[in-house]
Specification:
The complex is a heterodimer of chains A (801) and B (272). With 801 residues, chain A is mainly alpha-helical. Chain A contains 33 helices and nine strands. In chain A, the strands form three sheets. Chain A has a three-stranded mixed beta sheet with strand order 1-2-6. A three-stranded antiparallel beta sheet of chain A has the order 3-5-4. In chain A, strands 7-9-8 form a three-stranded antiparallel beta sheet. Chain B has three domains: 9-93, Potassium Channel Kv1.1, Chain A (2-Layer Sandwich), CATH 3.30.710.10; 123-213, no CATH class; 215-272, no CATH class. Chain B has helices at 5-26, 45-51, 53-60, 64-68, 78-90, 102-115, 121-133, 140-152, 158-170, 172-175, 184-192, 194-212, 254-257, and strands at 32-36, 39-43, 70-73, 215-218, 227-230, 239-242, 249-252, 270-271. In chain B, the strands form three sheets. Chain B has a three-stranded mixed beta sheet with strand order 2-1-3. In chain B, strands 4-5-8 form a three-stranded mixed beta sheet, with no helix packed on it. Chain B has a two-stranded antiparallel ribbon with strand order 6-7. Classes of the chains: A mainly alpha (801), B mainly alpha (272).
Chain lengths: 801, 272
């Protein structure tokens, strides 16, 4: 066999194959010839000849065809595009497309021919190449295409990019046109992309060295970043935030489509990141804080736009830091505004006016402000809840953010616990009137939701007990059923501990009704049917269950509290009677009568006053127990005689502050002036004299004489100090109990751990102060519940059984 | 009870194979004509393409064969091609009914299997060859088989070459006798087929190398006259020997053994 002769046969056949005239060629003949060459150990030479053949073919014929499609005009336009660039798009586009088409054709032809050659040269590939570890002839031919075509320079001019660079330019230019809204031939680009995908940067055929990645994708991403950076700038300046979001969404979708239809899907995550970086990640803060940003959207209820903002930021960060931050800031601001407004409302009366304005009026105003605050907080909360559902896909992170900032501003209001309790109080007394069950249900829910935010649950409990106590004793609740529902909900939310005492109060009320009825029966059975018998309705309150201020009349000094109120004999008899009856039922219990809490219906006869033309009038007065004691004193007094405050006190032992309040109701309040005071002034002094007002004129038969500020209202400063002190005391006990509980179980514990565990245990009730915990621990050590462990590296304690 | 599928599986496969085998003989449904001189085989693309990549490419491409449905072979021996097709349809062939002696015939089968990329056929041919090769070492076809192996099959085909080389090894003394009179045909072939001779030489040199690297040691037993040869190396940490004469067990490192090195010109009594 002669090599040259055989090669000549092959070479001529290869030319025919490249010229697409292979149909007459015999595969067997070519195969056999190549086979023989390899068998004769000339595989090496055959391989080199084939490579040479391909190189010649590519760098003469094919290169010429490609370069023909790149007139200087197009090259200049592509070059200029990045800097100035205003050459007629249409022409550049047509020329570019022709270039793409030619390149696509060349590549496809090359592949077809090479796969035919590879078939013919199969024996060489399998035997020679495998033995000598050469790349297959196909691979080599592909590299040749890269070197001879893609790396060639048009007209040999190095100052222009090579064909590969030009291809990038053309594709990027077409993509730019499409981004600007033009239509382009996607299939054509895709074919060229496939070529880049099929070629490698060097002869190492590793994934990362694909030309698509090393040459094209990098430039594509870089130019896209530039494009979107500019677009971001423009959009921020020219559009409002909502438009910005919509545009961004559209662009992301477009880039996804582009990867699918024009480029490669493997680019999708990368270009997405570019768009997300340029339009979202780096811009989110500016966008959210812009004039038409989140604050604007919230104010103007742009729910769809908010949803877009959420959606965009969720793409780049599941924690949505900017949106979360903005929301928290806005909620906190809005909340702080509410707090300020509430304080302003509460302090509506300037301090210098306070002396003149009636104290109760001021307090009422404050109570209204407090109620308004709660209503406003609820409204704010509703607004953000709705937004959370509608715009933020009920996202957990956002929810936490809303909860946190709500809790923050609510708790930053020093009186939030009291206000919440007042709000419930107001609704129980007035608010639920005429409401349907569903509405009441919603209201109760709201109350519970608010309660969730309040950190100092113990303070709330204190107020709630106080307010509930008054509602129950004064019969001010519209529906005991709703009251019980409320308690039930609190129980579900905060646990048994929280509601045990509140439930006890209801139990006392029920028991008291039974006692009253039972006592009536008991008296009737005595057979002593006195027509002037006094009816008695009684409430027996368990002293530990009820708030202290209900059961104690807040005495001014200890001396007064020790004095027993003096009841007239008729009253004393009833008192004794009931106590006997009670002791029969419950032996060993002490009854302590609370004159400040009860009310009495008294029939009063006012004599004729001829000078004014008044006839004799009878009125039924509803007065407090103390007022009744005062009025009874005037029964025994001759007409026109007076009693001084001191005298009244000496004969009744009513504590001074209660006495003053009752005398104000009886002698100062214009419509219920049963007594006359001398001198006539608003203040009540020790030396003032009181007369029975024979000339009292009432419009109705029944007259209710209210006690000044008896209803539930906001506390004054003195009361607050009191409440705080009480609360601190009870916190101290709670802390001590927790510490002892923990130590009993753990026996020994370091200081740090003990404090941490104590805080964890008490967190549902209140946030314990670390200093207070320290003091309580000290006190427990003094009382020998605990001892310090000597020579322990960190300070630690041991439980002493 | 009807038989279940599992029990009929083998029968099914057997039927399938019988059906395929029958196709070659019956020439039913053929769609490809293979010519070699005046011999013609009517075969099925589906079968031959499944077994030979050559036919895949021939039928597949843009070439004449693909369009006409005719493949013309050249340079092959009709019997070999016939057996090759038989193998494609039956996965076996018979080498007893050919004119060429089996040693040579099977070499040609291997060559055809490699040329036409017929899967597993070369393996079958080598295993058949193994059966004849030992007994035929002194014959002319043995030498011809070697020559054809080295000129018509790929260098990478070690199995075929080793089958011959091992036999040559065993009979090297005779095949390469000094007078060149007994096996002139073999020696002429060896002179002509350089790559074969190179491989023989390499094998012999390797064996000689092993022989030369042996060192004589004496038995460590006191007064034992036994000597032995060993190829132990410096890296060996434990070389065990039981003396055939005095029965002593010794286990020393190479280092230690060096004390027992000896020069001994007489007959090697024992090798290890």
């Amino acid at each position: 066999m002669d090599f040259e002769q055989t090669w000549a046969i092959l070479a001529s056949a290869f030319t025919q194959i490249h010229e697409k005239q292979a149909s007459k060629l015999s595969f067997e003949e070519l195969y056999r010839n190549a086979y023989k060459i390899v068998l004769k150990k000339k595989g090496d030479e055959l391989y080199l000849r084939v490579a040479e053949f391909e190189r010649d073919w590519l760098s003469s014929e094919i290169e010429r065809r490609i370069h023909k499609e790149l007139p200087p005009q197009l090259m200049n336009a592509l070059q200029g595009r990045s800097s100035a660039g205003s050459v007629g798009d249409d022409q550049v586009r047509t020329q570019g497309e022709r270039f793409l088409r030619q390149l696509k054709l060349a590549w496809e032809d090359h592949q077809t021919c090479m796969s035919m050659l590879t078939d013919v040269l199969m024996y060489m590939d399998r035997v020679y190449c495998a033995d000598t570890r050469r790349p297959s002839i196909f691979t080599t031919a592909m590299s040749l295409f890269r070197d001879c075509i893609l790396r060639s320079h048009v007209r040999g001019d190095d100052s222009w990019p090579d064909i590969c660079g030009t291809l990038n330019h053309v594709i990027l230019d077409q993509i730019r046109m499409e981004r600007d809204g033009d239509f382009i031939d996607k299939h054509l680009i895709k074919a060229n992309v496939y070529m880049l995908e099929g070629l490698y940067d060097s002869h190492h055929e590793v994934e990362e060295e694909k030309l698509y990645l090393t040459s094209f994708e990098y430039e594509f991403l870089a130019s896209s970043a530039e494009f979107y950076r500019a677009l971001g700038d423009r959009l921020l300046k020219e559009s409002d935030a909502g438009q910005y979001c919509r545009e961004t969404r559209k662009r992301i979708d477009e880039e996804n489509d582009r990867c699918r239809s024009t480029l490669l899907e493997s680019t999708t995550p990368k270009i997405q990141k570019v768009v997300e970086d340029e339009l979202i990640r780096y811009r989110m803060k500016d966008l959210i804080e812009s004039e038409s940003g989140v604050r604007f959207m919230i104010t103007n209820e742009r729910h769809d736009d908010l949803a877009l903002v959420f959606d965009l930021e969720a793409r780049v960060d599941p924690r949505k830091p900017e949106l979360t931050k903005a929301l928290q800031k806005i909620i906190l601001e809005m909340g702080t505004n509410l707090n300020d407004a509430a304080q302003l409302g509460a302090a509506a009366e300037a301090p210098e006016d306070r002396a003149k304005a009636p104290a109760d009026k001021l307090v009422n105003q404050q109570t209204v402000a407090a109620l308004k605050w709660v209503e406003d907080v609820l409204e704010l909360k509703d607004k953000f809840d709705a937004m959370w559902k509608q715009s933020f896909q009920s996202d957990q992170t956002i929810h936490t953010a809303i909860m946190r900032s709500s809790a923050e501003f609510i708790n930053s209001h020093p009186r939030c616990a009291e206000y919440m309790s007042l709000f419930i109080d107001d609704n129980m007394k007035k608010g639920i009137k005429g409401k349907t069950e569903l509405e009441i249900e919603a209201l109760l829910n709201k109350a519970i939701v608010l309660l969730r935010y309040v950190q100092e649950k113990d303070v709330f409990e204190l107020y709630y007990k106080k307010h509930l106590g008054k509602r129950l004793l004064m019969g001010r609740s519209l529906s005991i059923d709703v009251e019980k529902q409320m308690i039930f909900r609190m129980k579900m939310e905060l646990g048994n501990n929280f509601t045990a005492k509140l439930e006890g109060m209801f139990k006392d009320m029920t028991l008291s009704e039974e006692l009253t009825a039972g006592y009536k029966g008991y008296v009737a059975r005595l057979g002593d049917a006195d027509p002037r018998r006094i009816d008695l309705a009684i409430n027996v309150l368990t002293s530990m269950t009820w708030p202290v201020e209900t059961t104690n009349s807040a005495p001014d000094d200890a001396r007064e509290s020790r004095l027993k109120t003096i009841y007239p004999p008729a009253m004393e008899r009833i008192r004794q009677g009931f106590e006997n009856y009670y002791k029969e039922k419950y032996s060993g219990r002490m009854l302590d009568w609370k004159g400040n809490m009860g009310t009495v219906d008294v029939k009063v006869t006012f004599p004729k006053v001829p000078s004014k033309g008044f006839k004799e009038r009878r009125h039924e007065l509803n007065v407090s127990t103390y007022a009744m004691l005062i009025l009874l004193l005037f029964n025994d007094l001759p007409s026109g005689a007076s009693l001084s405050l001191e005298e009244i006190q000496a004969r009744t032992n009513i504590p001074t502050n209660e006495l003053v309040r009752n005398l104000q109701s009886l002698a100062v309040a214009p419509k219920t002036r049963i007594l006359l005071k001398e001198p006539m002034s608003k203040d009540v002094k020790d030396t003032d004299k009181f007369f029975f007002n024979e000339g009292f004129m009432g419009k109705f038969h029944k007259v209710k004489i209210g006690i000044v500020s008896a209803g539930n209202r906001i506390e004054n400063d003195r009361e607050r100090v009191e409440t705080e002190k009480k609360n601190n005391d009870s916190r101290g006990y709670a802390i001590e109990a927790a510490v002892v509980r923990i130590m009993k179980q753990r026996k020994e514990l370091s200081h740090q751990q003990l404090v941490t565990e104590t805080i964890t245990q008490l967190n549902s009730q209140f946030k314990p102060d670390v200093n207070m915990i320290k003091k309580r621990i000290e006190s427990l050590i003094e009382r020998e519940y605990l001892e310090r462990i000597e020579d322990s590296p960190s300070s630690s304690y041991r439980y002493l059984a | 009870m009807a038989p279940n599928y599992e029990s009929t599986r083998a029968d099914g496969i057997a039927t399938l194979l019988t059906g395929i085998s029958g196709l070659l003989k019956s020439e039913k449904f053929t769609d490809l004509e293979v010519r070699l001189g005046d011999r013609v085989w009517n075969v099925h693309k589906s079968i031959v393409c499944a077994r030979s990549e050559f036919f895949v490419k021939a039928c597949n491409g843009e070439f004449r064969e693909g369009k006409e449905g005719i493949v013309e072979l050249h340079d092959d021996e009709p019997d070999v091609i016939d057996k090759m097709f038989h193998y494609m349809y039956n996965n076996e062939y018979d080498d007893a009914d050919t004119e060429t002696v089996p040693v040579l015939f099977n070499v040609r089968i291997v060559a055809a299997a490699e040329k036409y990329f017929v899967d597993h056929l070369a393996l079958l041919a080598v295993s058949k060859l193994d059966y004849y090769v030992e007994d035929s070492w002194a014959t002319r076809p043995f030498a011809d088989g070697i020559e054809e192996t080295y000129t018509t099959t790929a260098d990478t085909d070690r199995q075929l070459r080793d089958a011959f080389l091992e036999v040559v090894d065993r009979h090297a003394d005779e095949l390469f006798d000094k007078d060149s009179t007994r096996y002139p045909h073999f020696q002429a072939m060896a002179a002509k087929t350089v790559s074969f001779s190179m491989e023989v030489a390499a094998r012999l040199a390797k064996a000689e190398g092993i022989r030369r690297s042996r060192v004589t040691y004496r038995c460590p037993g006191a007064n034992c006259p036994m000597v032995f040869r060993s190829t132990m190396k410096e890296a060996d940490t434990s070389v065990v020997r039981k003396c055939g004469k005095c029965g002593l067990d010794s286990n020393y490192s190479w280092d230690k053994w060096q004390q027992f090195r000896t020069i001994f010109d007489g007959t090697v009594i024992e090798t290890a």
